[in-house]
Amino acid sequence: MNCLKNCRSYQTKRPLWLYNTSLRFFFNTPMLADVIFKIQGSTVPAHRAVLVARCKVMAAMFNGNYLEASSVLVPVYGVSKETFLSFLEYLYTDSCCPASILQAMSLLICAEMYQVSRLQHICELYIITQLQSMPSRELATTSLSVVGLLKKAKFHNSDCLSTWLLHFIATNYLIFSQKPDFQDLSAEERSFVEMHRWPSNIYLKQLAEYRKYVHSRKCRCIVM
């Protein structure tokens, strides 16, 4: 009984943060942090144990013969602070909620940089889902460059996304062929799009002939 009382007494004196078992509680907080990332003039605290467990690149970086292994302050290049925070949030929480297609692409690039393939796939799925849900009118007027997304996806080895985007451009040929960035497609990409375009030239030709036929039937004078 005395042991139980002492245990309860100890629990009432413990700080509340010790009861929180979610890693989200430690995300972007200096509490128990043992590494600080310096990015775009700002600092972001983190915990090596979490990073090593969740990211192979960081595991090699902090355990190998690299400067980062013995440094508390680690600089980060080639990525914005917002994107890097989203990347760290995924490592801590195993969840990802991009605010836009462009943010998802930036996060995908960061995931490719640190070789976190699952996060890459999540970003790919987000981009595909968002583009699929866009009405044709919005696709025609948006300033978002789908061809630009295709180029980035190819450059960063996102084969699934780049293949889907190429089919998406071909399927919506009449919309994307009118955009200036359509000319940025490579010869190989243009050949693929022309071969798989919809509507196809054959379909458009048949449609024009049918409309011509219908118009001629309406205009014919029929004497009863």
Strand content bin: 5-15%
Mean pLDDT: 87
Q: Count up the helices.
A: 12
For the termini, the CA-CA separation is 110 Å
Task: For the largest sheet, list the strands in their spatial order.
Answer: 2-1-3
Question: What is the alpha-carbon Rg in Å?
Answer: 27 Å
CATH superfamily of the domain at 14-79: Potassium Channel Kv1.1, Chain A
Class derived from helix and strand content:
mainly alpha
Low-confidence stretches: none
Shape: elongated
Helix content: 55-70%
CATH architecture annotation name of the domain at 14-79 = 2-Layer Sandwich
- Per CATH, what is the topology of the domain at 14-79? Potassium Channel Kv1.1, Chain A
Biggest sheet features: 3 strands, mixed
Organism: Vombatus ursinus (Common wombat)
Pfam families: BTB
Protein name: BTB domain-containing protein
InterPro entries: BTB/POZ_dom (IPR000210), SKP1/BTB/POZ_sf (IPR011333)
Account of the 3D structure:
This is BTB domain-containing protein. InterPro entries: BTB/POZ_dom, SKP1/BTB/POZ_sf. It is a single chain. By secondary structure, this protein is mainly alpha-helical. The chain has a domain at 14-79: 2-Layer Sandwich (Potassium Channel Kv1.1, Chain A). Helix content is 58%, strand content 6%. It has helices at 2-13, 48-54, 56-63, 81-93, 101-113, 117-132, 136-141, 146-155, 159-171, 173-176, 187-196, 201-219; strands spanning 35-39, 42-46, 73-75. Helix 2 crosses helix 3 (56-63). The longest helix is centred in the C-terminal third of the chain and has 19 residues, at 201-219. It is elongated and about 80 Å long. The model has no long low-confidence stretch (mean pLDDT 87).
